[in-house]
Amino acid sequence: MCCDLKRRFLLLYATQKGQAKAIAEEICQQAGAHGLEADMHCMSEMDKYNLETEKDPVVIVISTTGTGDPPDTARKFVKKIQDTTLPPDHFTHLQYGLLGLGDSEYTFFCNGGKTVDRRLQDLGAQHFYDTGLADDCVGLEIVVDPWIDGLWLALKKAFILQKEKEGMSSNAVPSTLSAALHIGNELNLSSEVQNLKLEDGVRSSVVLTQKLVDIHLEASTTDAEPSLVHSVPPVSQSALNIPALPPEYIEVQFQDTHGENPHLSSLISEGTTFEVPVTKAVQLTREDAIKTALLLELDIADAAFDYQPGDAFCVVCPNNVNEVEELLQILGLSDKEEYLVCVKVKQGTKKKGATRPQHIPERSTLKFLLTWCLEIRAVPKKAFLRALVECTSDAGEKRRLQELCSRQGASDYTRFIRDSNVCLLDLLHAFPSCKPSLSLLIEHLPKLQARSYSVSSSNLYQPGRLCFVFNIVEFPACPARPVPRKGVCTGWLAELVAPLLHPSKNTLDTKGGSSSTEKISIFARPNNTFHLPADPSVPLIMVGPGTGISPFIGFLQHRQKLREEHTDWKFGETWLFFGCRHQDRDYLFKQLKCFLENGTLTHLKVCFSRDSSTAEVAPPKYVQDVIRLYATEVARVLLKERGYFYVCGDKHMADGVSNAVVDILSMEMEADKLEAMKILAVLREEKRYLQDVWS
């Protein structure tokens, strides 16, 4: 490659929870070793880059959120490029490569990246490198690592062709073009061969010596099965390719003085936060139910918080207090938990464009930092494991951490860390000689994310009140995680409202409430599509087993109030399919019959998957099975009456329901399955088949 070729490329990322940013930072870091310079920006920083005039190659890393939406940081960008007045040659000058992140557990896999990719193509932009789609369901690194490996050759080819385009002679084929064609041939090689073809001196990985292999073999030969702390051949006998050590860039100073912690609202960039009282808590399930479901009511009368049934909102939650104390103890910082911590960028850091993370206050107490800012439950990324290697003194433990972040140990990482939901505390218990610094945790632990919940009420039906329903998430113990845990937010909420659920005998409140009102911080996360039809005469079908029924309670409350206020309106029929394990243990809203009696709900169909039956023909166990019994009615509502179909609940159930709908359409229309799938796709496009699902 000629020394005078341009070596800058624009690197854009759009992230919801930090993964896309972390990958972009890895690309930025590796670029220097390849003689390239990444001009990295968040996609939302539209004043710092201009695709209309961009001449250099563009690399985009973008995640997907919600039900296939681009992340919040990409919304303005997407809105801009989706302007229908833009001509089809608007971006003909642009060459780009895109890496999309998603989860195949969801219907619209990598749709954030696909949306941007498709629109850039529509506007004339050209790929200089094939689009990569990474799947968090099986491990992002399976696609991300080889995609980054191949990026450098693709960029070099793009630079060469760009130079030739600027000064190409029409009389002869220049030597640099031949070089470009040669690189183009190399690009056709598989990712494994690409790894071998990388130039010496620019590898982002380090090959370990056989001496370390031998050290670890002594510790692991007695173990026939691999585990979090032990490996077996071939991993234990391999020389390892491990990531480059991420440069340190954060510096912390402790001050033995008291000071004010920042307000929680200053940590939230997604919207305005409101601190609201919890006025009511009800356990909807019996004590012997497999899962515990709670309904909480919030008083939003004094908050400028508006919502529609079907919307979601986020709860700002802290880490578990016992886990924070345990972490402080392991780090040897228990005596400094109330010290002020000053966080700043380390002078002379090699990290390009280093800044203090947005979610980290410049000054706060150590306890506040670990409680409200850092996701200490996060599954550690490989870059974090690589950094932890340098904090580990025991040779055997050091080797195992190296294996877990290496290419050779990829399956061990997936099995013992990713799939086992291992967190920092688990690692520190498993590798006791590992003693990371606070600055390292700030550098590598992601932001503690607020948790999203569906609204289960109507502001029209209950003015000034917001209700939501959730199961208390349980993580049972496993070999890699010896202690059971509750979900970060659901466990905290359950503890917070315990006085409302189980009032103390000593309380003076004879109604059984708590004498002190707990408050939580929330912010809106409106859903643009999962709403009732604007025309109340349109029929609708709702499918929501378990806590998936939550938004439909709000739908029915809203519809009931509209019926009371507008007796002259015509209202379409409403169907609700609900299911749970046991009728007497977890039938969450038995008052659904009230909606039936007053006419708000036209049809209620329920099923119970774990209840035994003495009937000659066993009743259907799951909602997708019940739906099939009403195939004619479902087809009529969707096809003849142009009704709406809503599904809320877990991904497995949602897939079963969509399969049932495809079968119904195929049968009722006497069409083949492919044609039925196309019809369902049209319903999705028309926003008449809507899902609110989780994995």
Structure description:
One of its GO terms (biological process) is folic acid metabolic process. It is a single chain. This protein is α/β, with parallel strands linked by helices and 695 residues long. The chain folds into three domains: 7-161, 3-Layer(aba) Sandwich (Rossmann fold), CATH 3.40.50; 250-349 and 356-444, NADPH-cytochrome p450 Reductase, Chain A, domain 3 (Up-down Bundle), CATH 1.20.990; 540-693, Nucleotide-binding domain of ferredoxin-NADP reductase (FNR) module (Rossmann fold), CATH 3.40.50. Helix content is 34%, strand content 18%. Strands 1, 2, 3, 4, 5 and 6 form a six-stranded parallel sheet that branches. A six-stranded antiparallel sheet has the order 15-12-19-10-11-16. Strand 20 (540-543), helix 17 (550-565) and strand 21 (574-580) form a beta-alpha-beta unit. The longest helix has 27 residues, at 141-167. It is globular, with a radius of gyration of 28 Å. Residues 1-6, 169-222 and 505-515 have low confidence and may be disordered.
SSE inventory with pairings:
Layout: E1 8-14, H1 19-33, E2 37-42, E3 58-62, H2 75-81, E4 95-102, H3 111-122, E5 126-127, E6 132-135, H4 141-167, H5 175-187, H6 191-197, E7 205-207, H7 210-220, E8 241-243, E9 250-255, E10 274-283, E11 293-299, E12 312-316, H8 321-331, E13 340-345, E14 363-365, H9 366-373, H10 382-389, H11 395-404, H12 410-418, H13 424-430, H14 438-444, E15 451-454, E16 465-471, E17 474-475, E18 485-486, H15 488-496, H16 498-501, E19 519-525, E20 540-543, H17 550-565, E21 574-580, H18 592-597, E22 603-608, H19 623-629, H20 631-640, E23 644-650, H21 651-669, H22 673-685, E24 689-694
Parallel strand pairs: 1-2, 1-3, 3-4, 4-5, 4-6, 20-21, 20-23, 21-22, 23-24
Antiparallel strand pairs: 7-8, 9-13, 10-11, 10-19, 11-16, 12-15, 12-19, 13-14, 17-18
Helix pairs in contact: 4-5, 4-6, 7-11, 10-11, 19-21, 20-21, 21-22
